[in-house]
Amino acid sequence: MNVGYRLAYRLGVTPWEWAGRSLGAQLTTFLDDQDASAGPPGKALDAGCGTGGHSLELARRGWQVTGIDAVPLAVRRARARAAAAGVDATFVLGDVTELEKSVGRGYRFVLDIGCFHGLTAGERIDYAREITRVTEPGAGLLMFAFGPGRRGPLPRGASRAEVERTFAEWHLASDVADTTALPPPVRGSKPRWFHLTRA
Asked: What range(s) does the Methyltransferase domain occupy (predicted)?
């Protein structure tokens, strides 16, 4: 999948960036709730950050944000975007299945907009282990994922059962299927928002 993403960024075919922008209202509502319940913002991680749009929103809210992505062009664009906006955010080129060596520890919130659902079964296990390793007890994880299914080159999605099984050290606080304002191709993938908290 990594090679596919690199090629897509190079060709300028990045529908996930466009779809991610359409999640804005839903993400804003959740982040408002998160800000109200989590106390002062701390360290936040944007896993599979792409060109950094969601990272910048977190940084504007006072979070100390690190975004990580495996595509060099996406990371360069995220850094340029932050600089142009005058927003303080760090963007790292790295592998989400080996987070600790790239981003350190101490995160209180993790945002995953379409990262987990594109990983292989083995990568998902490694990813969950690393997310647990780099976060603090009580940390929150907000994940947007397609429902499971075969979609050719598109992500295979993830079920609630797989999310709960893979993140065994986390509690699934909510599972919401809200497709309002999403474009038809995204609605057809049966997407869900999973909100988990680390034990």
From this structure: 45-138
For residue 12, report the phi and psi dihedrals to the nearest 5 degrees: 80, 20
User: Topology of 2-198 in CATH?
Assistant: Rossmann fold (3.40.50)
Of 39-48, 85-94, 125-134, 138-147, the poorest mean pLDDT is in 39-48
d(CA 113, CA 109): 13
Angle 193-172-129 from CA coordinates, rounded to 5°? 95
pTM listed for this prediction? 0.86
Sketch the domain layout of the chain as residue ranges. 2-198
CA 110 to chain centroid, in Å, comes to 7
The pLDDT tens digits for 71-96 are 999 999 999 999 999 999 999 999 99
Q: Looking at residues 180-197, what average pLDDT do you find?
A: 79
Closest CA to 54 of 84, 17, 29, 83: 17
Q: Cα–Cα distance between 182 and 171 in angstroms, integer? A: 27
